[in-house]
Specification:
Elements (H helix, E strand, L loop, with lengths): L1 H17 L2 E14 L12 E11 L4 E15 L6 H6 L2 E16 L12 E22 L2 E23 L2 E12 L23 E13 L10
Antiparallel strand pairs: 1-2, 1-8, 2-3, 3-4, 4-5, 5-6, 6-7, 7-8
Protein name: DUF6089 domain-containing protein
Pfam families: DUF6089
Length: 225
């Protein structure tokens, strides 16, 4: 009896695993940040950025995904729309390495093996951990010592995806990350010359295009189509 139960569990799990469609993809586009330096446009890609992603299609509406993103960011008060920032004249550059996991929800059923379910807009919600440089001290005037720092963010995004040809699809996506830190631009009260932070935490964004390859045996909901 015990062996029969184990066999049934194994077969059921294997059927679920094999019955899914998986996706891998690469993204290229632009990143930007909103914080205490420079512009405050939430969609203003100004640094070349990229990502690699993996998806597990749970059903035609829901996909679970993991993403690694390489996101350089910069800000310059010269580009700001206030006289205060322009007169202040601060600027910075940083690089974010991010790992994120989350859920993609399709507004319409999406099935690469179907003839009429091959495009949809979608929304995305994730949790992310990211690494970046943070200013720690000022050994000499205007010469800073930096260290690597890890924090967390809550990415949310919107996008559109469509079948391209065969097993290939594409998507266009904008993703916004709310962080729990205010030092992506090196702002810190520990260093007087960098004590320019406001009352809000920083954001960083990615807007780009993805090319996606689908593989795995078609799921049971696509059979017969």
């Amino acid at each position: 009896m015990k062996n029969s139960i184990l066999f049934i569990v194994f077969v059921s799990f294997s059927s679920i695993l094999l019955g899914q469609v998986y996706e891998i993809g690469v993204s290229i586009g632009g990143s930007n940040y909103v914080g205490d330096i420079g512009r405050t446009n939430y969609i203003y890609p100004n640094k070349l950025a990229g990502a690699a992603l993996f998806k597990y299609n749970y059903n035609p509406r829901i996909a679970l995904r993991g993403t690694y993103s390489y996101l350089p960011i910069k800000g310059n008060d010269v580009d700001a729309d206030t006289d205060f920032k322009q007169n202040r004249g601060l600027n910075f550059k940083n690089t974010i390495h991010e790992l994120a996991v989350g859920m993609e929800y399709n507004f319409y059923e999406f099935d690469m093996n179907s003839n009429d379910k091959t495009w949809t807009p979608y929304i995305l919600v994730e949790l992310a951990a990211f690494n970046y440089k943070s200013a720690q001290s000022e050994p000499q005037p205007r010469e800073y010592f930096y260290t690597s720092k890890t924090s967390y963010a809550v990415p949310i995004g919107v996008g559109f995806k469509s079948k391209l040809y065969g097993a290939l699809a594409f998507s266009v996506e904008a993703k916004f990350r709310y962080t729990f830190v205010d030092d992506l631009d090196y702002s810190t009260p520990k260093i007087p010359s960098l004590d320019f932070g406001g009352t809000g935490n920083d954001w960083y964004m990615f807007t780009g295009f993805s090319l996606i390859y689908t593989f795995g045996r078609p799921a049971c909901y696509t059979e017969g189509l």
